[in-house]
């Protein structure tokens, strides 16, 4: 089998829902990061990529609107890409773009392709409202619109109620199960903002981001310079008014954004004209009870490490998508690792979590962290609604 490498990654700054990127279509956001990747590959052009790029695979949690169901294909065409390059869009909710990266790496390993462009996009601002079709013409009852931006909708009545609680209520149940206090959550959330701000100030995100034309968004919009654990402690709870701990401050916000990456074999790197940043050494998927989705990265990462042939003792950097501070802390506790190696450049509580874009954001950030520090091994992992987790292990090829 061929080895699969990560050659380059890029993302937009993440805008808050209803904010700086709300006026930009998701297919345009995806086209932007695709075009940026092509510009960074001196060996190819978009229109001439038919002989180099085996496939485009994009992640998206919400294909019901302007994504036109297959936003990977739409965005590639908008970028002027060769019409002979096939493209698909995968949906594993929050893990969609990491799943796209895994699928791309699998193609490389199996010698089905030498170069795959992977990524993901989400505009939670522009996610449509949907109206269910009626079972008979001219119904007399009122119909209710459903917001497709986040969470359950049009639930099958056969689903057990404990599975279909809100994401926030599920997190409350998880933190009760694993004894995660409100104080720890607020401290973790404040740390996320402080580290993300420091990373932007240090220039770590300059090469990883590309501005969106027509906007003045230069960094992630939900970053807050004045956030402290003490200020977060004053926020009211959202999902449980009595005895709750999850707030808007210790959960990831709703966001808009896109990310993408080049994955290829050694021969694919020659076609791109790029040197590898990291080897994709292993990956894993896992699932558990839907209401405990936040804990699924624990097993997914164990499987990814086993696939890579290493253990936690080898790992020096972790990018764990911070859907909620509570679930992140539960995972870190279960792994028994040093919290300082987790999200050293900030995480989703501060940066944001545009569902389909977060996976390749985490993966590219992990590769950049390994390159910056010279560390050899790292893990990128996400929890996924309805009780799933994904993880990828990277090896720094220059360590």
Oligomer: single chain
Q: Distance between termini?
A: 23 Å
Number of helices: 11
Shape: globular
List the uncertain runs: none
Sheet with most strands: 10 strands, mixed
Structural class by SSE content: alpha+beta
Q: What portion of the residues fall into strands of 2 or more residues?
A: 15-25%
Cα gyration radius (Å): 20 Å
The tally of beta strands, per DSSP, is: 12
**Helix proportion:** 25-40%
The overall average pLDDT, rounded, is 96
Helices and strands, in order, run as: EEHEHEHEEEHHHEHEHEHHHEE
Characterization of the model:
The protein has 399 residues and is an alpha+beta fold. It has helices spanning 26-39, 71-78, 96-109, 167-178, 182-201, 229-233, 266-272, 297-308, 325-335, 348-351, 358-373, and strands at residues 5-11, 15-16, 55-59, 87-90, 115-123, 129-130, 146-147, 255-264, 278-287, 315-320, 377-384, 388-396. Strands 1, 2, 3, 4, 5, 8, 9, 10, 11 and 12 form a 10-stranded mixed sheet that branches. Strands 6-7 form a two-stranded antiparallel sheet. The radius of gyration is 20 Å and the shape is globular.
In short:
The protein is built from eleven helices and twelve strands.
Helix-strand blueprint:
Elements: E1 5-11, E2 15-16, H1 26-39, E3 55-59, H2 71-78, E4 87-90, H3 96-109, E5 115-123, E6 129-130, E7 146-147, H4 167-178, H5 182-201, H6 229-233, E8 255-264, H7 266-272, E9 278-287, H8 297-308, E10 315-320, H9 325-335, H10 348-351, H11 358-373, E11 377-384, E12 388-396
Parallel strand pairs: 3-4, 3-5, 10-11
Antiparallel strand pairs: 1-8, 1-9, 2-8, 5-8, 6-7, 9-12, 11-12
């Amino acid at each position: 089998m061929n080895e699969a490498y990560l050659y380059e990654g890029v993302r937009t700054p993440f805008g808050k829902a209803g904010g700086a990127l709300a006026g930009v279509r998701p297919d345009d956001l995806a086209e932007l990061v695709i075009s940026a990747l092509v510009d960074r590959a001196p060996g190819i052009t978009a229109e001439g990529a038919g002989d180099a790029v085996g496939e485009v695979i994009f992640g998206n949690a919400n294909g019901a609107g302007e994504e036109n169901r297959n936003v990977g294909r739409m965005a590639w065409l908008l970028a002027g890409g060769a019409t002979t390059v096939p493209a698909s869009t995968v949906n594993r909710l929050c893990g969609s773009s990491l799943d796209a990266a895994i699928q791309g790496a699998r193609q490389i390993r199996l010698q089905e392709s030498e170069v795959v462009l992977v990524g993901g996009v989400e505009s939670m601002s522009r996610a449509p409202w949907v109206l269910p079709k009626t079972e008979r013409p001219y119904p007399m009852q009122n119909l209710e619109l459903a917001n497709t931006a986040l969470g359950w909708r049009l639930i099958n009545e056969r689903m057990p109620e404990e599975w279909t609680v809100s994401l926030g209520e599920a997190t409350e149940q998880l933190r009760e199960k694993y004894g995660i206090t409100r104080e720890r959550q607020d401290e973790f959330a404040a740390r996320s903002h402080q580290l993300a701000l420091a990373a932007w100030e240090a220039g770590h995100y300059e090469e990883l981001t590309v501005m969106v034309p027509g906007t003045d968004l230069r960094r992630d919009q939900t970053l807050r310079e004045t956030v402290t654990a003490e200020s977060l402690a004053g926020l009211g709870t959202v999902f449980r008014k009595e005895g709750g701990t999850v707030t808007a401050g210790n959960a990831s916000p709703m966001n808009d954004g896109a990310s993408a990456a080049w994955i290829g074999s050694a021969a694919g790197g020659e076609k791109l004209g790029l040197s590898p940043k990291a080897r994709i050494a292993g990956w894993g998927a896992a699932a558990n009870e839907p209401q405990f989705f936040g804990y699924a990265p624990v097993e997914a990462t164990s499987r990814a490490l086993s696939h890579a042939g290493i253990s936690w003792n080898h790992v020096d950097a972790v990018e764990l998508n911070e859907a909620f501070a509570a679930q992140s802390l539960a995972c870190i506790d279960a792994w028994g690792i040093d919290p300082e190696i987790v999200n050293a450049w900030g995480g989703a509580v501060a940066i944001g979590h545009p569902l389909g874009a977060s996976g390749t954001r985490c993966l590219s950030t992990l590769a950049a962290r390994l390159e910056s520090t010279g560390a050899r091994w790292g893990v990128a992992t996400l929890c996924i609604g309805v009780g799933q987790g994904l993880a990828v292990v990277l090896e720094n090829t220059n360590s």
